[in-house]
Design goal:
CATH superfamily of the largest domain: Protein of unknown function (DUF541), domain 2
Number of helices: 4
Number of domains: 2
CATH architecture of the largest domain: 2-Layer Sandwich
CATH topology of the largest domain: Alpha-Beta Plaits
Number of strands: 10
Structural class: alpha+beta
Length: 245
Amino acid sequence: MKLTPRKKIGLTLVGIIGLGASLLGSTSADAATSKNTPTRYISLSSTGTVKVLPDAVRLNASVSLVGASNKEALSTASTASAAVRAALLANGIVTKYIKTTSLTVYPEYNYTQDKGSVLIGYRASQSFDVTIVNAQNAGTIVDAVVAAGTDALRIDGVTPFVLDNAAATESARVDAVKRARSRAASYAKLMGVKLGPVIYMEETSTPTSYPIMYAAVAKSDAGATQVDLGQQDVSVSINIRFYIN
């Protein structure tokens, strides 16, 4: 049978349409297959820690006195506080590192079984948070403050810490990533897969330092107070994923 030109054209168009449908179906199938194939990865957490020598000390101290009235108590406590402040300044502590954390005045009572609560006066207290940027001078400054405040002074805490931990934090980050990569490589080897690039990472905590809450304070042979600084940990934690194939 001899085909006319019109019929030839019709068959050609049908062939093209059929080929297009075939390609479309193949592309859709490939996309569906790719979509259903999960990304393979190793996910783990890691913490990097470095030990550093504290270079500063936080001193918490309070002055507290009892007076016959609110005014008298506050006046005598203020005089003692001024002496403590002067001792700090005389030993190289600048004013920006001297902070008042509380100032209170309140009636004070004495309780007995026969008389109950009896007013004995009014107590005024002022508390200080002092940053000693040169840790080696901490013992000398503690002695000076105690001498200035006499019996009205109470030492509430002596805490060594790192004044600027930026360099230590960066080292802790490096340590965290190294530990994570080492562990991921170990898992990849155990599973018989190849470790690929990092596809996700999150720092799960801000850099954390663990100060010694109360430093060891002792008297040396010469009678001077010595503050033992010890060591401090600076840590960084991360979550990380490595692609595997």
